[in-house]
Amino acid sequence: MEELDTIGAMQSWSLTTDKFIDHAARWHGHIPVVSRNHEGQVSGTTWQHIRSDAARLSNALAARGIRPGDRVATLAMNGAEHVAAWFGIMGMGAICHTLNPRFSDEQLVYIINHATDRIIFADRQFVPLIERLRAACSSIEQVVVLDEAGPDGWASFLDGYGDRYLWGQFDENIGAGLCYTSGTTGLPKGVLYTQRSNYLHTLMIIQPDSFDLGAKDVILPAVPMFHANGWGLVFAAAAVGAKLVLPGSRVDGASLYDLIEREGVTASAGVPTVWLGLLGYLEKSGKKLGALKRVYVGGAACSEALIRAFARHGVEVQHLWGMTEISPVGTSGRPRPDVEAMPFEDQIPYRLAQGRSMIGVDLRIADDGGRELPRDGKSVGAIQIRGHSVVERYFRAGDIAVNGDGFFDTGDVGTIDEQGYMRITDRAKDVIKSGGEWISSVDIENSAMSHPGVELAAAIGVPHPKWNERPLLLVKLADTADVSASGIQNLLSEKLARWAVPDAIIFVDEIPIGATGKIDKKLLRATYSSHYESGAQ
Amino acid sequence: MEELDTIGAMQSWSLTTDKFIDHAARWHGHIPVVSRNHEGQVSGTTWQHIRSDAARLSNALAARGIRPGDRVATLAMNGAEHVAAWFGIMGMGAICHTLNPRFSDEQLVYIINHATDRIIFADRQFVPLIERLRAACSSIEQVVVLDEAGPDGWASFLDGYGDRYLWGQFDENIGAGLCYTSGTTGLPKGVLYTQRSNYLHTLMIIQPDSFDLGAKDVILPAVPMFHANGWGLVFAAAAVGAKLVLPGSRVDGASLYDLIEREGVTASAGVPTVWLGLLGYLEKSGKKLGALKRVYVGGAACSEALIRAFARHGVEVQHLWGMTEISPVGTSGRPRPDVEAMPFEDQIPYRLAQGRSMIGVDLRIADDGGRELPRDGKSVGAIQIRGHSVVERYFRAGDIAVNGDGFFDTGDVGTIDEQGYMRITDRAKDVIKSGGEWISSVDIENSAMSHPGVELAAAIGVPHPKWNERPLLLVKLADTADVSASGIQNLLSEKLARWAVPDAIIFVDEIPIGATGKIDKKLLRATYSSHYESGAQ
Fold first, then answer.
1. CA B18, CA B89: separation in Å to the nearest integer?
2. Strands (E), A86-158
């Protein structure tokens, strides 16, 4: 084999995020970037101005002694300055750490110190939060307020700096973004997105079988930019030169509707709660949606009701699945052609699935021994993933986060069918493992909650001398309900496989909810750990 | 800055072409790949079988002593075995050299020796061609016939080899494909596509603003796989898991129509000649197109008549521009949203443009001094390009092929307008440079040929003592025409800028045509070099 560098070559072209904003400014420079601020005012700028501000920021940061690899944080909702901050920080090779204001003070102090953030770009509404933490965070040198005109404000920080900066003068594998997962157990962990992983994730998600984004679109990320890389939408909008609409902190139904209609939004993405708000507003007001064509739903499972309600408005819902560790898109719900050809009713089970994987993602389900399970739509296993935008090692972690085969175990559990559709059945830590069978706690809960008298249900696995674990169901009844345990048992027997029916049902006044708004199953498991100790049931 | 490899990382995921076929086989394994052979028979296989054959081929090649970096050639039309050969050769790290059977014997001998091809996979129809050349090509160890059952055939070559092979065990920057440009001057030059450049080109062209390809599509590449990387369509089809339809050597109107209708083709790509054949067949037969939605036209300028004729059939024409050196797509004609909102008539000038650049391509026009010219739709300059899929150095060339700014000069000349649309006006070597103005030879020829009496026209630049060059027009009249030079001059004066009107018109019986079917302007320039010597005109 001859020396590679003497036989011919294609051009080197580092996969760096500055390419996106350069492309947007050069070829789509006058396309608007619209923001709503905290006070509700809507203002517009352009990709060209965003690029200019980003370059000025790179100069300002360099002048403050920020070097490639340093962490510079943002604590802000979706807005034009936040977008410019991303590109300015990443463009000069620093790492943009998106702080999540919904974390607890304790968590924020931990991650700021863990990341040793030097500067924070923050919305004014979060300044009191930073002031509260600042004494405990010695690495913070400066706080710049994005929506303030004064000496601590964004304009002052950029003042005097030019808009020429030679971006991308570094290896494509350096860190670009940093995002911590709260986790329901243990300390938050940071995922360090690289320039390359962000570039490739962007190209992957704009394709027709994922987000299907082009210059034709007007994109509204209703997901905050601090949530899992903003689902990649800011990069995607710049890469295709689409108009970008940023809702600030106002994602209630009325505000969202107003912005969608006013700006002609065609594609939007967010968690189910946000969409329920919008649909509720539409129902109450009797208003109609205009240009909106596609809504991407992720972060939590999308309900059938949501899909049907949007369909009545002529909007297609696409389910997404992902997580911070995978940049974040792992599967997309764009229907296969054979599914799309079905009557709408028959499409529902496929549209409720979490979707299919795209080129760049390798997905599998595995048993406890790490052996791949069949893609038959029935076998339930740990969902494992590898690809160019999947974590290898958490920020400053000693160990790598992948198994011997190079797969990251997502902590989700589910099935994959013959058509490639993946369906999440549970979180791994909540799955009940009984006599070799995996029982979905979510299935039990959904079945129980289909009973009109049940307000909330929580299913947990409790140690059992014979079966390893057996399901136990905790039920909080609705105020006026008069329901017996046997009534619920009968219902569950109709809906679930025999071995999945809980051995016992306990009525409780309250089911404990954790800091992230989810049922605190860890506490429940501790409380009821010896319930089946006798093996009597 | 801390050591990068200790602070966190995303997974390494080499950008290699085996990822495409693995993805297709795993997630779209039963999707058909349909081929028509030289005898006209249509047969089907699947992505899973293509992958299996490709892996068996990798094993067979390795057993024959083929190592990564070695050149293995193909001399074949579009068919399933040819596709499997591509993936098998590239998957094991060898370089797949696509030989063009339309090259002259002399050219083929030169490029086979230049590439030192060791094995050739060929269609049976090209075996006599190889036999003719073989004595002059000592590097060829074996010829394997793709469509033959005997001992020299594809099946025999794979016989006994298993379908497991650990692909992609190499750096993503190694060569994957090799394609020679014939060039109208000098020796053919080889472009060495790398694994990485092919991967990135694929992600770039499947996006909505380029080819817009997904699992929904049935793709028919009417462009041969040996033409400029097959326009990237084989990789793209595998990457999105689309059904692929391969027409073999039959791209006449009737055969193409039959295959398009039979297989439900939604998207196809080819040169204008192919589409004129299909449209002619439709007109003659009165037949209608069914599923076909988009046709990509490249390789030569697309006419207004072609766009209108396809529009009448409900098919959208998208203009493409590219060349072997850029993998090959440089611009795509997907309309901007503001253009798409126009009445169809107003869209025509935009649809006739060569298109816009996508992320991954940096395009500019430059003057003789290499200074960038304004994107105003008027300034005419050399079209220069850089990006991840653009040549840096030709195969085994001593010099690099890019200028000091890292741009490759395409040899095309044109304009870029404010909306980003690029329009080719001429080939650089044919542009007439007169007194500081650039005059398009193509414009003069088109104007002259709009005269009903003119059968063929050729405009060339001839040295001129005062203006450096002045245009000279050669005209071949139609048999029955009675036209005077002043009649043509008057017509040109109406259509062209004053300085672009040729100083002289010469009537000739024949206009010389070169080996590639184009007017031999080099010969014309030599013949008429002293026509304006006196400076009299």
1. 10
2. 95-98, 119-122, 142-145
**pTM of the predicted model, to two decimals?**
0.92
Distance CA A232, CA A225 (A): 9
Per-residue confidence (pLDDT) for residue B428, from 0 to 100: 85
Chain B: give the shortest CA distance to residue A472, in Å: 38
Q: Is B114 helix (H, G, I), strand (E, B) or coil?
A: helix
pLDDT band, residue B183 (cuts 50/70/90):
low
Model confidence over A365-399: pLDDT tens digits? 999 899 999 999 999 999 999 999 999 999 999 89
Catalytic residue among B116, B148, B181, B495: B181
> Is the pLDDT at A488 greater than 60, yes or no?
yes
Q: Which of residues 20-39 of A touch B (CB under 8 A)?
A: 20, 23, 26-28
pLDDT digits (tens, 9 = 90+) for A437-477: 888 898 899 889 888 889 889 999 999 988 889 999 999 99
Q: What is the reported pLDDT for A186?
A: 73
Here the ipTM equals 0.91
Residues of A in contact with B27 (CB under 8 A): 356-357, 420
- Say whether A392 and B11 touch across the interface (CB within 8 A): yes
A435 vs B262: CA distance, rounded Å: 53
In angstroms, rounded to a whole number, what is the distance separating the alpha carbons of residues A407 and A343?
Answer: 37
User: Residues 6 or more apart from A534 whose CB is under 8 A from it?
Assistant: none
First-to-last alpha carbon distance for chain B, in angstroms, is: 70
Among A198, A226, A233, A200, which Cα is nearest to A33's? A233
- The SS3 assignment for B342 reads coil
Per-residue pLDDT averaged across A258-270, rounded? 98
Rounded-to-integer distance, Cα A274 and Cα A270, Å: 6
Contact B396 A8 (CB under 8 A): yes
SS3 A7: coil
- What is the per-residue burial (b if ≥16 Cβ within 10 Å, else e) of B400-423? ebbeeebbbbbbbbbbbbebbbbb
Is B467 tagged catalytic? no
Per 3-state DSSP, what percentage of chain B is helix, strand, and coil (rounded to 5)? 35, 25, 40
- Interatomic CA distance for residues B170 and A523, integer angstroms: 49
Average pLDDT on B48-70 reads 98
| 8 Å CB contact of B68 and A1 | yes
Q: CA separation (Å) from A67 to A118, A163, B11, B329, B490?
A: 11, 18, 24, 37, 67
Nearest to A208 by CA among B151, B214, B225: B214
Question: How confident is residue B519, by pLDDT bands cut at 50, 70 and 90?
Answer: confident
Over residues B77-97, mean pLDDT: 98
